[in-house]
Amino acid sequence: MSTLTVSPSPHIHSKDSTRSLMLDVVIALIPAVICSFVFYGWREILLMAVSVCSCVVLEWAITKYMLGKSSTIGDLSAVVTGILLALNLPYSTPVWVVFIGAVVAIAVAKMTFGGLGQNIWNPALVGRVFLLVSFPGYMTTWGAPQGVVDAVSGPTPLGAIQEGLAQGASVSEIMATRGYDYSQILFANLGGSAGEVCALALLAGFVYLCVRKVIKPWITLSIFATVALTSLVFWGINPERFTDPAFNLLTGGLVLGACFMATDYVTSPMSVWGGVVFGVGIGFLTMMIRYFGSYPEGVSFAILIMNSLVPLINMAFKQKKFGRK
Amino acid sequence: MSKRTFSIGGVHPHDNKISRECALEQLPLAPKVYIQLSQHIGAPAKPVVAVGDKVKVGQPIAEPGGFVSAFIHSSVSGTVKAIGPVKDLAGNSQMCVEIEVEGDEWADGIDTTPTLVTEIPADNKAIIEKIRLGGVVGLGGATFPTHVKLSPPPGSTCERVIINGCECEPYLTSDFRTLLEKGEQVVVGAAILRQVMGNVPCTIAIEENKPEAIAHIREVIARLGYQGIEVMSMKMRYPQGGEKQLIDAVMRRQVGSGALPISVGAVVQNVATALAVYEAVQKNKPVVDNSVTVTGECFPRQANLIVRVGTPLKYIIDYLGGVPADAVKVISGGPMMGRAVANLDAPTLKGTSALLFLTEKQTKRAPASACIRCGKCADACPMGLEPFLLNRLAKASDMEALENNAVQDCIECGCCLYSCPANIPLLDNIRIAKGQVLGAIRARAAAAQAKK
Amino acid sequence: MTETIIWTVAVITVLGLVLSLVLYLVAKRFKVEEDPRIDLVEKAMPGANCGGCGFAGCRAFAEAAVKAPNLDNNYCPVGGNDTMSKVAEILGYEVKAKAPEVAVVRCNGSCAARPRINNYDGYASCKVKAALYSGDTGCSYGCLGCGDCVEACQFGAIHMDAETGLPVVDQDKCTACGACAKACPKNIIELRPKGPRGMREFVSCVNKDKGPVAKKACASACIGCGICLRTCTHGAIEFHDNIAYIDVSKCKLCRECEAVCPTGAIHGVNFPKPLDKEAVKERIKLRQQKKEDKKDE
Fold first, then answer.
1. How far is B220 from B255, CA to CA, in rounded Å?
2. Does residue B24 form part of some domain?
3. Does residue A166 sit at the C interface (CB-CB below 8 Å)?
4. Which of residues 101-130 of C touch A (CB under 8 A)?
5. Residue where one domain finishes, among candidates B262, B283, B304
6. Quick one: how far is CA C207 from the chain centroid?
7. How far is A199 from chain B (nearest CA, A)?
8. How much is the pLDDT for A148?
9. What is the C-alpha to C-alpha distance for residues C168 and C262, in angstroms, rounded to an integer?
10. Angle at C139 between CA C135 and CA C141, to 5 degrees
């Protein structure tokens, strides 16, 4: 018999760890990564590798040399940030721009606040939005695809709609000239960021996360519901000015954002009702930006805005305590 | 009927009932027993024997030291060798009566035959007095004196007696074996309890992972022809056996913060307590033994033993082959709420329900990392608290905020620490803060009382 | 161009005037009348906000001191007599000088003397550990070694000695605020007068167990043998619950008790010369011999 160990109860653990949860997120992202490879080829894998490596190395260097703490890269959260950042960028983004995105995501958005668990905004999204406002040229240029499947080059559907509306065309005219149809959108998006290419692959990952109980579905579902409802109302008022619900649900970064960015533990509310409010906020803000904003896409901005409100939401929506009013 | 469970939180650890097939067996008498004078919640009992006295099994050796206190009986026959401090399983000194065992002679009036006595005395006061004299306490772990629980304060009425057979802690099987092998006695005990509380309905709650026990108890109730006692099959979920959780599950009523179960009309007693009530009332047999599960994957000789109170833990373990080489932790009780044993020479108590052996791999705590705000602790908390917040407040010693966030409601079930992916010692800190806040609340109440 | 400049200057000037008026009115409306002496007292305080005086911070102390009729119950252990005389001057009170104190760790059960008999695997906090069980050594009174006192000290005056596993007080940094004593769940740390030139004699053990039990748990425990009590000629040693305690007011720092203690539980610090145990024992022997001779006569 070895020396007895004494510790306070409980004496067993669920075996969930930060690392295992993050690993599940990585696994859930694999279908989307494969899809982006299929549509955009090796260059996408290169971007992904640069993004992930930069994030991990940066986090390691910052914890070791600047904070003087033990390294936290083992929890794989930097890997998740790296993959999400890459999925949020057009495949033609130059490698050095990706690196700058990683620096902003890890060094500015995450480690400045004290590392994992302390950041207010989703690091990958901060990186993406920084690049979007700093290098709008690279971020909205969609060069010719090099993938296995012939993907259509050109502006994103949302971009095309905004451009068309600005030129005075109606939604149906733009859709007709572009030749969009929904099955195309569901299986392979018509240009856009790497992670926006295939809604089905992303949804598969989302289902996996829910089944593994890594995340709860309420945030994502409330975003979808709000986007659908808001666009239904506007579309019902004027179908020539406003796009329809199905188009809004399937295009742009909505699926990626709702499934993987809004559900980030650190930057989302904890309680179920808090999550619903958070999701409704994201959905509504997204639609407002899409319909009335100067950017064609608003998911990133909507999530970042709602991230800022999370502490307030957490305070306002607490779980009911047992036996208390 | 759909399976019932409590409404907030909870976790699903693997139930690991690996000793479920082991029938109850009697542990041979130890050469010496150490009977602790404080085996219950409330004032320690006062010894009524002196060094050198001869005692018999079931003879009272200590009397209650207050209203909330209990009789303590000799669990063996022999000579009182000493009355003094003995180290308990945590290594702290406790007053004990040390008795050297000589033979096994029972005190007069105790019916040791296995005959089932179903005829319940009509006088409820006499029943409660018998329970008091029998030293019956809550054997589910809380060890609250049963006669006190059965004497509700004036103005409160009991609407239902719940017999807790959930045994929601992983590994534990002693209640399960008791239900299977002493089901008749438990049912008669339940009938006594419901009669005492004013012929209210009685529910025996058993989790669905014990289908044999559910079927057996249903059969026994039908055979003995009892009305008003039903068996409820519960959905598996920890901590269903918590008093407040069980009342919520069975009656759909939530006991308020700081209130007693009787405030919502419930009285909860454990299966082992129901058996002890039967023995005390029908057989005049006080609490001198209880069933103890000895288990663990690394422990080759699983067993459900009937152990005399005060038997040294080491004696039990040695009887079954000693502590296995790869065990690093011995736990008295279940893995979620049990206490780690620091001193194997410590004696068993009335409330000792299990000895569990865990290996380093099973029990070693991973180093804590940063909170990722996943909210799993808040999801798991059966009291609807926010452990991550309480932990932070506890570290800052912010007593006012801790009280406002209901730290005093914590039942220390361990669900938060169990589910935390960052392995943050949430409960370690919250438990301390809870003690301090409860102390402050009591001091305030005492001051208010003094002013009146 | 000139018009733009004029407009800009005008707008900013008007804005500035309006806002300053608002600020002035608000400040006047919400002004809190306070005894000006509170500020003076607070300025005289060390400003560590350590809570050693029993108040939440220096400001709270100042408020209480100004309200109180005298300074009997308000004493800043950190600032000591210097600070208190300043405070007394401000408030016009008299202050009783207190002997400077220092935190003393009354446990010398080092890792070598007190073998570990189990492993603790919980949150590294003495409070948590003490609530759980008696500790990872056989001694249920001694230091738990998780360093709650180190954390409680705001002056960086305590550190854990890696070799002994016990806290060490840096007496130059210690301000005797008492935070460590409050933090210690085993009540091992005591505030004792610093003594002349820092010299002091104390029993570095709080084990209340009987001799053999204490000795088994820790080689350097006070075993309650009472030799020190019989040796001391100044009546400075008290004896309760199998444990010796040296009364500072009576101790003459002769170090005889330290020399005769069989387990080395009595410690003397800051003495100029190391203790020559044999010489002291010889001295005691001679004295006792004389006494006996006298008795014989």
1. 31
2. no
3. no
4. 116-123, 128
5. B283
6. 20
7. 25
8. 47
9. 23
10. 80
Residues of chain C neighbouring B428 (CB-CB closer than 8 A): 122-123, 125, 128
The Cα A129–Cα C49 span in angstroms is 44
pLDDT per position as a tens digit, A170-209 = 887 777 777 666 666 555 555 566 666 678 888 999 999 9
C226 touching B (Cβ < 8 Å): no
Most A CBs within 10 Å, among B329, B373, B392, to test the A interface = B373
Taken as a whole, chain B contains a residue count of 452
Cβ <8 Å between C118 and A8: no
Residues above pLDDT 70, as percent of chain A:
89
ipTM at complex level: 0.89
CA separation for the pair A155, C54 (Å, rounded): 69
Domains for chain C: give ranges and CATH numbers: 37-91 (1.10.15.40), 101-191 (3.30.70.20), 195-297 (3.30.70.20)
Specify whether B270 is located in the same domain as B138. yes
Note the Cα C257 to chain centre separation in Å.
24
Assess contact for C186 and C126: CB atoms under 8 A. Answer: yes
Same domain? For B270 and B381 the reply is no
The verdict on B173 touching A (C-beta cutoff 8 Å) is: no
Counted across chains A and C, CB pairs separated by less than 8 A come out at: 27
Mutation target to probe the C interface, by most C beta carbons within 10 A, among B323, B412, B427, B432 is B432
Task: Please give the residue range of the domain that contains residue B430.
Answer: 376-451
- For residues B235 and B128, state if they share a domain: yes
**CA separation, residue C65 to residues C62, C68, C77 (Å):** 5, 5, 14
State which of B249, B283, B317 marks the end of a domain: B283
Number of domains making up chain B: 2
Neighbours of chain C (3+ CB pairs under 8 A): A, B
**A265 vs B375: CB contact, 8 Å cut-off?**
yes
Nearest chain A Cα distance for residue B148, angstroms = 23
Helix-then-strand count for chain B, H and E: 14, 17
**Residue A51 pLDDT exceeds 70:** yes
Long-range contacts of C148-155 (CB under 8 A, 24+ apart): C148/C183, C148/C184, C148/C185, C149/C180, C149/C183, C149/C184, C149/C189, C151/C183, C152/C179, C152/C180, C152/C182, C152/C183, C153/C179, C153/C180, C154/C48, C154/C49, C154/C50, C154/C179, C155/C48, C155/C50
In this predicted model, what pLDDT tens digit does every residue of C77-119 receive, in sequence order? 888 888 888 888 888 887 777 788 899 999 999 988 998 889 9
Q: Return the residue of B nearest to C185 by Cα.
A: B432
Considering only CB atoms, A3 lies closest to which of C118, C131, C133, namely: C118
pLDDT-based confidence at residue A66 (cuts at 50, 70, 90): confident
Sign of CA dihedral C10, C16, C17, C18: positive
Q: Is residue B419 part of a domain?
A: yes
* Sites in chain B below the pLDDT cut of 70: 1-2
Neighbour-count burial of B53, counting CB atoms closer than 10 A to its CB (0-12 exposed, 13-18 middle, 19+ buried): middle
Q: Which of residues 94-153 of C touch B (CB under 8 A)?
A: 117-119, 121-123, 125, 127-128, 131-136, 138, 140
Query: Is residue B130 included in any domain, yes or no?
Result: yes
Of B91, B328, B364, which has the smallest distance from its Cβ to C135's Cβ?
Answer: B91
pLDDT value at A297 more than 90: no
- Residue A151 pLDDT: 47
Positive/negative CA dihedral, A143, A144, A146, A147: positive
Residue in A closest to B409 by C-alpha = A322
DSSP class of B19: T
Task: Find all residues with CB under 8 Å of B60, minimum gap 6, and list them.
Answer: B48, B71, B72, B73, B74, B133, B135, B286
Sequential DSSP letters for C66-112: HHSSSSTT---TTTHHHHHHHHHHHHT--------EEEEE-----TT
